[in-house]
Amino acid sequence: MRITPKDEVRPVAGAESQEQPPVWRHRHILDLDDFSAAEIGLVMETSDAMMEILSRPIKKVPTLRGKTIVTLFYEPSTRTRSSFEMAAKNLSADVVNLNAQVSSSVKGECLTDALATLEALGADMVIMRHPMSGAPYVAARRIEASMINAGDGWHAHPTQALLDLYTIRQHKTSLKGLKVVIVGDIKHSRVARSNIWGLTKMGADVTVCCPYTLLPFGLEDTRGIFPEVTVTPDIERALEGADVVMALRLQKERQQSGLLPSIREYARYYQLTEARLAEAKADAIVLHPGPVNEDIEIASGVAHGPQSVINRQVTNGVAVRMALLYLLSGSKRL
Ligand code: CP
């Protein structure tokens, strides 16, 4: 990779954990279960360098000039797709956005054929969102290009979790020992799963709060499937002394009948309100991956209140995704 002095990305020394700086070994980004704390630290520090670039009057460096990045989205997205596009353009890559709803997939083309076509057209990286859990893993085995999982079904959303970790680190300096409470529809949440991996690897104490019907298998009785977290259906108890509160969208499109009596009932017992947030520490921050169902999982006063860092998460998403594209571009096959 060639970087001119004027446009230099600041070198990244050591990880937050004080371990030796890791060698970047990932060709794909599929989830955070296979990331070490040092590797997450490297992403955080590289994101700091990207934030510096974003503070310049001209927010563009030539790092990925001549590379082609494709966004391939089989589900709707506002934040993830647009921030990846901005990140890639800031690094001077050529970006092709493919919306599956208007692609040949509607004529019956399968995912692997679509990927082979994109590769034949010269894609160096593919950023994919797919409704099927595991689809990016299948894709990664079939292509030479780097695959970034931009959300697969209920399974994982690693780049969202990394930008969440970055946002927490920005406000709290370190993640170690923080009480992080994730409230809401955990069962259907790829954001929650990736955050549980990332947060626990960085030493945070994670509490998960939801009605038992929205708790995924394997989370309460971990048996090695997930890292250890505290589970409680009692929101007031969960929020006591929290440093960070992450509210999750109630995924109405993924609800099976019978999981909740009604949306109104859910809001009554699980909405993050000002009164409930008062159980957390006075300097607690509130995150939400978006899109927000205001006054369902989070009161509008909290979503737009002084403790909310929701817009900051969106801003940080560009820097974190720039960091990931930069790090992947150093992987062997690109
Ligand atoms: N957080 C998130 O994935 O948002 P989008 O669906 O808008 O990309």
Describe the fold and architecture.
The chain is 35% helix and 13% strand. It is built from eleven helices and nine strands. The chain has a five-stranded parallel β-sheet with strand order 7-6-5-8-9. The chain has a four-stranded parallel β-sheet with strand order 2-1-3-4, with helices on both faces. Strand 1 (68-73), helix 2 (79-90) and strand 2 (94-99) form a beta-alpha-beta unit. The longest helix is centred in the C-terminal third of the chain and has 20 residues, at 310-329. The protein is globular and about 55 Å long. Phosphoric acid mono(formamide)ester binds next to helix 2.
Overview in brief:
35% of the residues lie in helices and 13% in strands. It has 11 helices and 9 strands.
Please give a handful of descriptors for the protein shown.
globular, Rossmann fold, 13% strand, five-stranded parallel sheet, binds phosphoric acid mono(formamide)ester, 9 strands, alpha/beta, 334 residues, four-stranded parallel sheet, 11 helices
Query: What is the mean predicted local confidence, pLDDT?
Result: 90
Query: What's the CATH architecture of the largest domain?
Result: 3-Layer(aba) Sandwich
Give the count of structural domains: 2
Low-confidence stretches: 1-8, 13-19
CATH class of the largest domain reads Alpha Beta
Oligomer classification = single chain
Small molecules in complex: phosphoric acid mono(formamide)ester
Helix-residue proportion = 25-40%
- Per DSSP E runs of 2 or more residues, the count of β-strands stands at 9
Net shape: globular
For the termini, the CA-CA separation is: 10 Å
Order of helices and strands, N to C? Answer: HEHEHEHEHEHEEHEHHEHH
Strand content: 5-15%
Please count the helical segments: 11
Structural class: alpha/beta
Classified in CATH, the superfamily of the largest domain is Aspartate/ornithine carbamoyltransferase
Largest sheet: 5 strands, parallel
Radius of gyration: 20 Å
